[in-house]
Design goal:
The complex is a heterodimer of chains A (257) and B (206). Chain A has 257 residues and is an alpha/beta fold. Chain A is built from ten helices and twelve strands. Chain B has 206 residues and is α/β, with parallel strands linked by helices. The two termini of chain B are 18 Å apart. Classes of the chains: A alpha/beta (257), B alpha/beta (206).
Chain lengths: 257, 206
């Protein structure tokens, strides 16, 4: 039986460390990304997401080194995002060991990026990442790490990108992000209704019960993504998976090594 | 020495890294003489069957693979590489494969109930149906990582494992010196590494 995926997300900052923001600001330093990735791999993470938030040429080189080193030691799917604006950016991270590439602002600036990348590398490689926030009761797409309201309606944008070839969608709710009050079920429900590709929930996980609630309320959700609760040890991946199994949610529980 | 066949399809970094991690020497190559001198061959692949089959033919590697298979050399196809081992694929038209195994590649939409997402993507469990050296270190129920929209049907006696996704889908095949995984062992954690290790321990047929 296909299992629900648990995905830790590692934001890599300019100092080559994992950082975590609260509501997209107040970044704080967590740990070495390669070591953290290895630990998550051992604990049974189903996939890892690496976001490049280094925002400089030197930072980018450092990020690619970290990615390569991780891909040499951790053998689960790796998704890379952050600063992906061209198919050359796809090429760069795929050669360093990424399996999937996530686009956000890059697709907003140039919607043809998704179709071009899907044609070159296959849809399975192209992940759409969307930052969504409620504005006047509507779900709006935000760009540039959540700093800029694009004015676009989120579900329409997601449908359009899936139509262009995005093979998976990461939906990050800015309203629930960093608050640890649970995932944004109403938003995720709308997205699941609208598209038939895998949907990954992001933003708001505060504890194991939030994941159980997510998969129970929305059986169509494929995966849950979180950062700080894993990084700070509030939730252990192994414990989470065991709890999911006990709750009747299919999960891959690995043996302790 | 394992030769990873490089015919311009897919990303071979992780495959090479995973072999190196378990201490298996490998070389990524499109050189026929390197394929002939290697102890074992791995045929990787992602993308469309027709394109990949055409690329293999264009660089003349299809003939080399068939010769080495006939000599008894262990060959492992991964994902699309596994599908290429079969006679024919019905992915966007009809395309001829290597014909090392009997069976046909068909869309999973033919057999799974509507409403299930396609591609079949994520971690799913193996039901092992055949005793094969490929699973020397594996057990029933082990989880592996899949990404595919097509599957090998009518594999007959080569069927080695299935996975359940609304219907039993071919997950692995094994017949003599020919092996294949629909899933990605190089992305399937310690379970995947143990399958690659088992392949690296297979013996050539004489």
């Amino acid at each position: 039986m296909i299992t629900k995926r648990i995905i830790p997300c590692l934001d890599v900052g300019g100092n080559g460390r994992v950082v975590k923001g609260v509501n997209f600001t107040d970044l704080c330093d967590v740990a070495s990304p390669v070591e953290l990735a290895e630990k998550y791999g051992r604990d049974g993470a189903d996939e890892l997401v690496f976001y490049d938030i280094t925002a400089s040429a030197e930072g980018r080189a450092l990020f690619t080194d970290i990615l390569t080193e991780t891909a040499r030691r951790v053998f689960i799917p790796l998704t890379v995002g952050g600063g992906i604006n061209t198919t050359d950016d796809f090429d760069r991270v795929l050669k360093c060991g990424a399996d999937k590439v996530s686009v956000n602002s890059g697709a907003i600036n140039d919607p043809s990026l998704i179709s071009r990348a899907a044609k070159l590398y296959g849809s399975q490689c192209v992940v759409l990442s969307v930052d969504v926030k409620r504005v006047d009761g509507a779900f709006r797409v935000f760009a540039k790490g959540g700093r800029e309201d694009t004015g676009m309606e989120a579900v329409e944008w997601i449908k359009r990108c899936v139509g262009s070839g995005a093979g998976e969608v990461v939906v990050n709710s800015m309203d629930t992000d960093g608050v640890r009050g649970g995932f944004d079920i109403p938003l995720l429900r709308e997205v699941c209704r609208a598209v038939s590709v895998p949907v990954i929930a992001s933003g708001g996980a505060g504890g194991t019960d939030d994941f159980i609630g997510l998969f129970r309320e929305l059986p169509d959700i494929d995966a849950g993504l979180a950062a700080s609760i894993f990084h700070f040890g509030h939730v252990g991946i192994r414990e989470l998976k065991e709890k999911m199994m006990r709750a009747g949610i299919p999960a891959r529980v690995t043996e302790s090594e | 020495m394992v030769a990873i066949i490089d015919y311009g399809v897919g990303n071979l970094f992780s495959l090479k890294s995973s072999l190196s991690y378990i201490g298996v020497e490998s070389e990524t190559t499109s050189d026929p003489s390197a394929l002939r001198s290697a102890d074992r061959l791995i045929l990787p692949g992602v993308g469309a069957f027709g394109d990949a089959a055409e690329r293999l033919r264009a660089c003349g590697l299809d003939a080399v693979i068939k010769e080495e298979a006939a000599r008894g050399k262990p060959i492992l196809g991964i994902c699309l590489g596994m599908q290429l081992l079969f006679r024919v694929s019905h992915e966007f038209g009809e395309h001829e494969g290597l014909g090392l195994l009997d069976g046909e590649v068909r869309p999973i939409s033919d057999v799974i109930p509507s409403g299930l997402k396609i591609p079949h993507i994520g971690w799913n469990s193996l039901s092992i149906v055949k005793n094969t050296p490929l699973f020397a270190h594996s057990k029933n129920g082990d989880y592996v990582y899949f990404v595919h929209s097509f599957y090998a049907s009518d594999c007959d006696d080569s069927l080695a494992a299935v996975t359940e996704y609304g219907a039993p889908l071919t997950a692995a095949v094994a017949k003599g010196n020919i092996f294949g995984c629909q899933f990605h062992p190089e992305k399937s954690g310690s379970v995947g590494l143990s399958i690659l290790r088992a392949f690296s321990e297979t013996e050539a047929l004489s």
